[in-house]
TrEMBL record:
Family: Belongs to the NPR1-interactor family.
UniProt biased composition (Basic and acidic residues): 1-17, 120-129
Keywords carried by this UniProt record: Nucleus
PANTHER family noted in UniProt: PROTEIN NEGATIVE REGULATOR OF RESISTANCE (PTHR33669), PROTEIN NIM1-INTERACTING 1 (PTHR33669:SF28)
Coiled-coil positions: none
Alphabetized Pfam families for the sequence: NPR1_interact
TM stretches of this protein: none
Record protein name field: Protein NIM1-INTERACTING 1
Tree of life domain: Eukaryota
Compartments where found: Nucleus
Keyword Nucleus part of the UniProt annotation: yes
Lineage of source species: Eukaryota, Viridiplantae, Streptophyta, Embryophyta, Tracheophyta
Listed Acidic residues bias regions: 18-31, 108-119
Amino acid sequence: MAIMNKEKKTENKRINEIDEPQEEDEEEEELENKKMDMFFNLIKNYQQAKKRRRLELLIQDSGDAASNPTKRSDSGIVPVFRVEDFSHCTDLNLKPSDSIISTKIQDKEEEEEEEEEEETEKKEIREDNGLDLNLAL
């Protein structure tokens, strides 16, 4: 009998071990189902809130458009320009000053001088070689 009791106990333990994972699996499935339900409820709530907000904005825009045609004038920031803001500016209709023109002329003259110097250097090099590459027709 003692042997049969031990066998029954071990058999019951094995049965419990086999049954416990099923119970754990069921609990895990229930937990996952709850999480999925919460997730889908969250999505539904978000979509409903989005729809409500759009409707509110549409109603607000339609009401504001009838009462106030220039909605952007209520932005809060209105730029103000004064004469002092432009006191440092010069008259744009005037011709450029003489100093600007004279510097441009000087720059052109310097470039021309540099080009002439380069040409003379090339001529000197040709003459040193003793070959006349200029062909006369």
